[in-house]
Design a protein that fits this description.
The chain is mostly beta strands. Helix content is 0%, strand content 56%. Strands 2, 4, 5, 6, 9, 10 and 11 form a seven-stranded mixed sheet that branches. Strands 1-3-8-7 form a four-stranded antiparallel sheet, with no helix packed on it. The N and C termini lie far apart (37 Å).
């Protein structure tokens, strides 16, 4: 199982970033996938997830600003992040989730840093 995140970086408040996660080594199209983040000194926090049928779920803190999507043909899951604030600064992880519980991660990638600062 391998998950490789990309797309992180430095962005100004109010800006946007698009994270991507390339998956391999498992049945991606049949898997639920999640994004989680960890800010310095804080615990890992669920951000968003998408079930194999395309159903999505978001943390209240990102609802209306972030959009998760998947491309089963390319084995990728994406996170479009708009209207970013300094509170969104964290390492963002892509994770394979439990099929029925997006908050339970069976494997996650190495993460990509997102920094929101002027």
């Amino acid at each position: 199982v391998q998950l490789v995140e990309s797309g992180g970086g430095l962005v100004q408040p109010g800006g946007s970033l698009r994270l991507s996660c390339a998956a391999s080594g498992f049945a991606f199209s049949k898997s639920a996938m999640s994004w989680a983040r960890q800010a310095p000194g804080k615990e890992l926090e669920f951000v968003s997830g998408i079930y194999s049928d395309g159903g999505t779920h978001y943390a209240d803190s990102v609802k209306g600003r972030f959009t998760v999507s998947r491309d089963n043909a390319k084995n990728t899951v994406n996170l479009q992040m708009n209207s970013l604030t300094p509170e969104d600064t964290a390492v963002y992880y892509c994770a394979r989730a439990n099929s029925f519980n997006l908050y339970e991660y069976t494997f996650r990638g190495q993460g990509t840093q997102v920094t929101v600062s002027s």
